[in-house]
Amino acid sequence: LDLSSLLQELENRWLSEGYESGELEQEYKEKGRSILTQFYNDNIETFTLPLAVEKRFALDIEGVTVSGIIDRVDKHMNGDLEIIDYKTNGKLPPKTRIATDLQLPIYHMAAQEMFGIAPKKVTLYFLVPNQKMSAQKTNADIEKTRRTILTVADCIGKQKFQPYKNPLCAWCDFIELCPIHKNDPVILAKAAANGKISNGNNSGIKNSRNGNNGNSSIEHAVDEYFELIESLQEQRKRIMQLQADIHSYCETNKLESICGSKGEIKRGARRTTHYNYEKLRSLLEPSGLWEKIIDVNSVSLKNLLENGGIDQLTGAEIAKLVESAVESQEISYYLSIRDESR
Ligand code: SF4
């Protein structure tokens, strides 16, 4: 299989459902193409047919069935088996993951049972950062895994489910009942934002965020603050709308000011000039003027034009140079208020 056929396979098997937009879908497809290309280039030289891919297994551990699917099993030239599990995480996990991960010793046991030999290596292959993490599982690791499986199965049988804090807690359907997050305002707020807390309990959670169960004055302050910010945003929007209407009226009627019962609004024009940075630099640098306006802004340029530069150039001469570097100019209009009541 060459690279283009591999990428064509991606195209053939691609499912378009579930993306928020066409752009997002294209972004993911592009990521997929780049991961496959990298994978192909890195592995084509040493490629041999795997012993198994997507291999289903069902292990019996003292009456407890553990089932799963192993991504890939390789048999190397010397007869050693390697279990490979592909990961699409964006980042590498901490190094301890390979030692503590329960999945790998289970795969080790499953491969040993299916192929009759203990795998030499178990590997997590992180496709995005393009890194592998490998380990050898010892008899002690396998024994520990068996005990863990039996303990977990026993707890499930007895309906004993100890909560275990993990990165998905904010999406857990049981977070309202979970004892370990009872007083954790951050995670409860996240869960509420994810819709994992029923409306009826929102007020309780709001209060527990502030460490009390009553309606404290600080909560009122926070609520009022939000209300004010919201109304400020609304007012800003309305002010912009009114400004646009007034500008438009003045423009149509060629007015420089307009009166209402509360005062007069004057309409002025503001010119913004855009310079060609490189050109301006090449013109001013030989005369040592560039340093004076190293960050080109209207104030420093105005000073330069008004006060002149160093001995050789007058303000008028500098103005000519600066003028020739103008790229474009914009005029914007502003309103200033004269309040009759003051
Ligand atoms: S919130 Fe859910 S997932 Fe997290 S520890 Fe509690 S029960 Fe477990």
How would you characterize this protein structure?
Helices cover 44% and strands 21% of the residues. It is an alpha+beta fold. The strands form 2 sheets. Strands 1-2-3-4-5 form a 5-stranded mixed beta sheet. A 3-stranded antiparallel beta sheet has the order 6-7-8. Helix 1 runs antiparallel to helix 2 (22-43) and helix 10 runs antiparallel to helix 11. Residues 163-166, 169, 172, 174-175, 178, 180-181 line the site of iron/sulfur cluster.
Give a quick summary of the entry.
By secondary structure, the chain is α+β, with helices and mostly antiparallel strands. It has helices at 3-13, 22-43, 97-100, 103-115, 139-157, 185-193, 202-209, 217-252, 277-284, 298-307, 315-324, and strands at residues 52-61, 64-75, 81-87, 121-126, 131-135, 257-260, 263-275, 326-339. Helices cover 44% and strands 21% of the residues.
SSE map:
Blueprint: H1 3-13, H2 22-43, E1 52-61, E2 64-75, E3 81-87, H3 97-100, H4 103-115, E4 121-126, E5 131-135, H5 139-157, H6 185-193, H7 202-209, H8 217-252, E6 257-260, E7 263-275, H9 277-284, H10 298-307, H11 315-324, E8 326-339
Parallel strand pairs: 3-4
Antiparallel strand pairs: 1-2, 2-3, 4-5, 6-7, 7-8
Helix pairs in contact: 1-2, 6-7, 10-11
The structure holds iron/sulfur cluster.
Residues 163-166, 169, 172, 174-175, 178, 180-181 line the site of iron/sulfur cluster.
